[in-house]
Design brief:
This protein is of the alpha+beta class. Among the domains are: 341 residues, 3-Layer(aba) Sandwich (Rossmann fold), CATH 3.40.50; 71 residues, no CATH class. It is 19% helix and 20% strand. Strands 6, 7, 8, 10, 12, 13, 14 and 17 form an 8-stranded mixed β-sheet that branches. The chain has a 4-stranded antiparallel β-sheet with strand order 2-3-1-4, with helices on both faces. Strand 2 and strand 3 form a beta hairpin.
Length: 656
Amino acid sequence: MYPLKKKLTLVLALMLFMPLVPLTIGARLTLASPDSNGKGPGNPHPGRKVAPDLDADVNDFQFGRKSDRTVSVIVLMSDNKSQASDGELDSKFRGHNGQFKNMYRTMGLATAQLPLSRIRQLENDEDISYISPDRPIVSNGHLESTIGAAQEDARSEVTGITSLNGTGVGIAVLDSGVDDQHNLIKVSSGRPGVVYHKTWTSIAGNRDYYGHGTHVASMLAGSPNFKTGYYSGIAYEAKLISLGVLDAAGKGQSSNVIAAIDWCITNKSTYNIRIINMSLGAPAKDSYKTDPLCLAARRAFNAGIVVVAAAGNRGKNSLGQKIYGGIDSPGIDPSVITVGASNSFGTNTRTDDKIATYSSRGPTRGYTTDAAGVKQYDNLVKPDLVAPGNRLIGAMAPSSAGKPQALATLYPSLKVGSSTSNDQCMYLSGTSMSAPVVAGIAAMMLEANPNLTPNMVKAILMYTAQPLKNFNTLEQGAGEVNAEGAVRIAGWVKSTASSLSQGSAMLNSWDESSQSNYIQSNSERIDWGRGVVSDYCVFYGSDLMTKWQAMYGQGKLLSDGTNISNGVIVRNLSYMTSGISLTSGPVTTTGVLISDGTLFTSGVLLSDGVLLSDGVLIGDGVLISDGVLMSDGVLMSDAFSNSITGDNTSAMQVAP
């Protein structure tokens, strides 16, 4: 991460949202058919119960291109079997020459091992709704060896929030583990540090052989007493819960993440777990409606936990050419706060900030397949917002020293500062670094107002974000995060907001002129974008903050504020007040105010493809105006290199 003090000058006093154009409220779009309520998991694969990548492996076996082998799978059980006993499930899978592993009843998901030759038989089993492979996951850090600029603690730059440090808020870090022996992480006066360790790998709970999780944790809760506060974290008095799901090479399985999320839901009250940070992901193959990681994330969200995930680092190919449609799972789920990376170029000012070239762009490309075999893409607008992610300095795990696959071993030039193991720091870049910046700000918001629902946290973060000039919503979502504005509104929200009726006054205080703030070090004005990204459109208007919207309720989605009828998006006035306008899709921005952007000239077509006026066509393939043709819309085709290069960075392997 950056020398964290200046990282936070950007983070806290800042950031940019994209101005959204208030267009016709009944804008016409052609949309993929949602599930029964249009919002969440359902039965989106009529006649098709096998995930596309697993289905391809089964086909290869049936046509003799692959021999039979046992594969690890994640099974979504039907509603009437979501509470089935272990014995019943064991008998079911043994009947198919398989082996039952675990059942996560809060999610209705089971893990098992099955031969490829038996997968088809399960499609006719009424107890089973969907079968996915246990996909590999990787950390979303993208390395840089460039020296960062001196940091200054943003907290000292922002009036009124100096005492908000995430006190009492539990943040679960699902990563490669957290080494609590580093002096930036270690418990100190007033700082609980890591209060619990658990691992689903062979690595001890309080160790981190890869080095990624410890770095992420230091972004969240790095001590202000380490090196005179030069690298302090965002919410340094929060309680960290380290859940190890990645191995010594920064890789793991989706089932590890599902198990960790299930643990968070079960132990939420014990550790006051209000936030889950996942600086990791897997290429999106399924729709969010059936993707196991998304289903797990949605369960946590429904339980009242803010879920923050890295967008991924699939924003360009090996030639450096821009790519759309690379958002990773679980960031493709509407309930998740999906965070992309911005590049601040080491300056205090935001006028030169840009979207990091590697940061994944939307729309989401998970899909369902209808009875006719036609792919119906989700095509949701993501990421939700961006945060600084380039050249950020954080803790290097002492236990990773000398480990052959550790980041610092593979890239020794990343090390910076002291060579003493418990003080050693290193540079990392990527959406992995951006996610904990947002998670830390969310912890400050929840300390200021513990009664905020996950949707309120998400909406406030987007409303107060600010636009980066000349970038569209599919690149930056609502814009660059603005901690000062977000925490300010969080403190204004009435503690009883969740019990208010639709349209009631939600804030204890409000001043239209307050919808901006200043970086005190250079008096730079930061205007709030005042828009909220949701699925296929953007909401716009002060009613989003001044009046209680039913879509902010526990277990609701922001997209509950709209209905889709015959391809037209309209407001759902049962969940949204009439004072809120909608855009008809992603917009561009000049980086000044929310109403100054220009809608893509041809509008947005969201069905089996996405047509944008900037020359990007995303359908069964990805066609980019500079001549790049990808072989599929998931961005993990033969045309995508295993290594990507960031802004002035060395290469790092992203996926096997």
